[in-house]
Amino acid sequence: MDRVHQLFEHYPSQEAVAMLMLRQGISVKDGNAYCGDIKQSDAAVARAAKVDRRVVRSTIERIENTPELLALYSKLKSMLLLSEASPEIGCSSIEVVPTDATMPGIMAGIMDVLYRAGINVRQAVVSDPVDDKDSHLIIVTDGTLPGSVLSAVRSCRGVASIIIK
User: Fold this and answer.
1) CA distance 84 to 128
2) If DSSP codes are grouped into helix, strand and coil, which group holds residue 163?
3) What is the pLDDT of residues 63-108, one digit of tens each?
4) Alpha helices in the chain (DSSP H)
5) Are 140 and 79 in contact (CB under 8 A)?
């Protein structure tokens, strides 16, 4: 997302809006912000970004008038994350903190442990794709995870710690 930063570097308030929209999967179509098919008002986005609504309007206009930005923001989609609601749907959720988020194969090792234990994975999401150094892997599984599986996940290559949610 360095390129987004470069394109907004002289407009810090607009950059804050652009980064919020990116993190939340808010797309830009026909001069408006959308979360899925639901149009978002400039005022609502402004409240979330803690800026004036006019900053949101100018950010959307900059995105629409910059082909490189429009190519990105026109394709964004928001996504349901089940981790917070996992107990209510009979699932477990763990957050994996990596030793180095750029190390390849961390997810593969964890998924192998879950597969061998016969655990069904409902969802696996890497959080904060905007900033790799703070990325965490969030995994939602059916049922309760046994302690032996949690220990095996903890001992996987590249795993610094796990947070049970």
Assistant:
1) 16
2) strand
3) 999 999 999 999 999 999 999 999 999 999 999 999 998 899 999 9
4) 2-8, 12-24, 42-49, 53-65, 67-73, 106-116, 147-154
5) no
